[in-house]
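Structure request: DUF1129 domain-containing protein, Brevibacillus porteri.
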Amino acid sequence: MENLQHYVDQLFQKYRGSKQIEELKWEVLSNLEAKVADLVADGLSLDEAVKKAKANLPSIDSIVGERRKVYILPLLQELLQLGLLYTLIAWIVTMPLRIWGMGIFLNYGLFAICILIGIVYLILLGINRPASTQNLTSMNVRSAFLLRKTGWMLWALYIVGTFVFTTALYFGSNLWFSTPVNLTGPYQFANIAVAYALPFLSILIPQWLHAIPRLILKYDAGEGDIIAK
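Returned structure:
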C-alpha cells in the first residue's frame, strides 16, 4: 500500500540515520498494513480501514522511546504459537533421521519440547483474554532489537564453527596430507551430509527471536482495539 508507505515515511521523517529506526519503521508499516487488511476483512471499506488503522497507531515519539507498555498475555500467546510452529517444523524435518544415532535423540527431544510448549500455550489460551487487557508490562524495544541482532550473529558464528569442526572431523587428515577424499559408501556419505545440514535447522531460533520486536509493536497498549478482535 503505497499511501501507507508514504504516511509512515512522513511519521519517521525526524528520526533518520539509524538502522534501528529503519527496522522500527518497517515493523510499523508491516503492522499497519496487517491491521488494514483485518479491518477490510471485517467489512470496512479500504478508505475507512486505512483511516481507522492510522487513528489507532500510537505516537511515533512513544514508539521510538525505549520502553513500551504492552499487553503481555496475547504477546506471550503468539510468541508461544510461533515457538510451537517452529518446533513442529523441526520435529517433522528430523523424522527421517531416526535411523541415525543422534537423530533419534534429537527427534524425540523436539517432540518433548513440542508437548511442553503446547501445554503452556493451552494454559495461556485458557486465561480469559478480555479480562487480561489490563495486564500491561513494560518492555524495552531497543533490547528487543538488540536481542534479534545478537541472535542472528550468534547463529552465523555457530554455523561457521560447526562447518569448520565438521570439515576438520571428516576431512582434516585429507586436507593436512593433501590426499583425495574416499567415501566408502552411501551410508558414510549420508552421515557427512547430515552432519553438515543439521546445524542449519537451528535457524528457527533466530527466526523466533526476530518476531519479538514486531509483537511488541503489535500489542502496544495504544492499540487496544487489536485485543478486542
